[in-house]
Amino acid sequence: NLYLYQNQFLPKEQVSISPDDRGYYFGDGVYEVFRVYNGNLFEPEGHYRRLEKSAREVRIPLPYSLERLHQYLTELIQANHLQEGTVYMQITRGAAPRAHPFPPTHTEPVLMAFCNEIARPKSTMEQGITAITADDIRWLRCDLKTLNLLANVMAKQHALDQGAGEVILHRNGTITECSASNFMIIKEGELFTHPANNLILHGITREVVLRLARNLDIVYHERTFTIEDLLSAEEAFISGTTVEVTPIISVDGRRIGTGRPGPVTRKLQQAFEQLING
Ligand code: PLP
């Protein structure tokens, strides 16, 4: 399993990250998770655009151009013979003695990427999963994909401890998104999802789903909605790079719609399937 480390391809054992890395001390870095289908990066432009924004907003200079990065990630996929899985990539502000101010300007950002061979989540996409709700206690720049994921980690584990598959986060009853996915409901046949502002990650899969909805003449609204709206919705699902479109069949022990994946969700899943196989 070869890793990309700065501009080298190395076995994992030879990747050496400093204990002074600011990613380790502060979560001071940004990342992306790409999907790979049939040996190709899925929707790479969206990921690069988001990476560029995250890096710019936290003021971490990208170590090389996005074109160069694309070449490296493509080589990484080929070197690992990856057909179906993900590529994880992160860039930290680099290594320097622990102190809050940005390190000296000569400090080089540290880039690391690797492949994960994982199958598509066929059975959960088919059957759906359960979820619980929890307070969204994250900061106010959830649109940046940074390494600071402690609130997400705590929320996800809370869900698993309760026997649920995902956690739906809300601010004072207004649903934002999930611990590692975006959230959508279907009400009176129309799709609702939180607007792409500072309170959610602008998911690439979310964008794809909205594009598919447009093609399928499913009316959609990027508009806030509440837990009450969710509990009276016909369907609910999450979207994300690894979960794709996964139905949510119950929330806090209460059935959503019929308690089975609904027809609009199925339509979107089928269109998604066609997109990745076409
Ligand atoms: N929201 C959060 C908090 C995430 O971590 C993710 C990433 O998986 C998503 C949403 C979905 O984004 P994407 O579709 O780009 O994977």
UniProtKB/TrEMBL annotation:
Cofactor requirement: pyridoxal 5'-phosphate
Entry-linked CDD domains: D-AAT_like
Keyword terms, alphabetized: Aminotransferase, Pyridoxal phosphate, Transferase
Keyword Transferase carried by entry: yes
Highest taxon above the source species: Bacteria
Entry's EC annotation: 2.6.1.21
Gene3D superfamilies: 3.30.470.10, D-amino Acid Aminotransferase, subunit A, domain 2 (3.20.10.10)
Keyword Transferase set for record: yes
MF term (GO), any: D-alanine-2-oxoglutarate aminotransferase activity
Recorded catalytic activity of this chain's protein: D-alanine + 2-oxoglutarate = D-glutamate + pyruvate
SUPFAM superfamilies per the UniProt record, alphabetical: D-aminoacid aminotransferase-like PLP-dependent enzymes
Coiled coil region boundaries: none
Family: Belongs to the class-IV pyridoxal-phosphate-dependent aminotransferase family.
Subunit structure: Homodimer.
Name of this chain's protein: D-alanine aminotransferase
Biological source species: Paenibacillus radicis
Gene giving rise to this polypeptide: dat
